[in-house]
Design a protein that fits this description.
Helices cover 29% and strands 20% of the residues. It is built from 14 helices and 23 strands. The strands form eight sheets. The chain has a seven-stranded mixed sheet with strand order 4-3-2-10-14-11-19, with helices on both faces. A three-stranded antiparallel sheet has the order 1-12-13, with no helix packed on it. Helix 14 links the parallel strand 22 and strand 23. Helix 4 packs across helix 9. It is globular, with a radius of gyration of 24 Å. The termini are far apart. The protein binds uridine 5'-triphosphate (UTP).
Length: 469
Amino acid sequence: MNATELKNSFASIGQQSVFRFWDHLNDTSKHKLAAQLEAIDTSLIAQLAEEYVRTKPKFPHPGDIQPVKAYPRTAGPGQESLYRQAAERGQQLLKDGKVAAFLVAGGQGTRLGYEGPKGEYPVTPIKHKPLFLVFAEQLLAHSRDCGRAIPWYIMTSDVNDAPTRAFFAKHNHFGYDPKLIRFFQQGMMPAFSTDGHLLLAHKDSLALSPDGHGGSLRALLKSGALADMKSRGIEHLSYFQVDNPLVQCIDPLFLGLHDTTGSEMSSKTIPKAHAKERVGNFCVGDGVLQVIEYSDLPDALAVQKNPDGSLRFDAGSIAIHALRVSFIERLTAGGKLQLPWHRAEKKVNFVDASGHVVKPDKPNAVKLEQFVFDAIPLAHNAIVYTTDRGEEFSPVKNAEGHDSPETSRRDQTIRAAKWLAAAGVAVPKQGEEIDAVIEISPLFAVSAEQLKTRKLPKAVAKGEQLYLG
Ligand code: UTP
């Protein structure tokens, strides 16, 4: 498209202001802006500005909302043989090379405020290993155990792609075969002013941000990663996010349950900490499994209790999924991903009409993102499997306080202490707190069961810093 055609196409959707400084730009800047604008689907932008920015879309409330029946962590009565078969099935899928790990790491990580990709963050309590290394060690351990290397797909975005690749290269890909790692970038979405105009971050560039973890499904198709998976015979993706060092990147039982139940998209859940915890809720709305955000679950339902006192809507979402490759193909057929958009009002720097950069002190813009869990209602036979918070969820979201590096380091020690205690090792306590710092390398053990097979000390000393690697 030449500049006139581009100008006309943005004018036709009322977005001509993105050309405000065009005549004053040099050729390099003109190319830069033109490349960003050409990548934009103008009819989509026009629709989003109308449906999601100028108006606030209402959450389409299901008429009937019921709790989900999640698979328990360990087999309940009558489920023993299903769980045994599922665990075997999961192992077999790994041995047959049918599973790939899928890490989404394209987010901006603004709350943590770390300079650089979040995966670089030194997260472990003793060795200060970066998140990427924690995942790499887990995947290497599972590859070792199943006798077959596990391919690893990593989604980045324009905000962190180059530094992420450089970090992996600098660390020799953490011992992973680089041929098994495939990086690809997700899409970017422009920010809007609250009256629906695209914002410029500079005179020659739009204010862009990653299009949400739901954009990963489209990015898998567009980047060719999906085709690559097909050519390698990969049937399932084990999806996890970059901020949770406790995640089991590969869980044979979960993968096996997902496969044997014919589920296209499976999810892990944990019991919520309290009725209003700010996590999504797995619910069955009008007969369809879905995640309802904490802000959309009516209070009257959120606080409902079962006769035993537990919460009736207790299934919190922790962003761990298994997805069939064929499901992603189906969802992205024709290049369109039919997931809803989520609107968030944020502070976004922009250039005003006089060309000055404005740094707002309150939200001035609307950002739109797609969320991966919105694919669940579109999946056949979707299941939810229960895990344990202490075993599998302690994300690093904020710089301080709740879900911070400090709480995550503490939770890593608590889990390690629990695994050691289960293996018969005495762990010192002071009141309720573990009186030691403990770190277990995933290469030493990926689970409490595996730890029992390792040579262990009889006891951990009071105040000791114990690293098992
Ligand atoms: P968050 O929802 O915590 O967002 O992402 P964030 O951008 O990382 O952090 P804040 O909100 O700015 O503090 C959860 C997971 O989804 C990934 C993140 O990298 C993280 O693994 N993600 C999020 C993407 O890959 N792309 C996105 O567009 C958004």
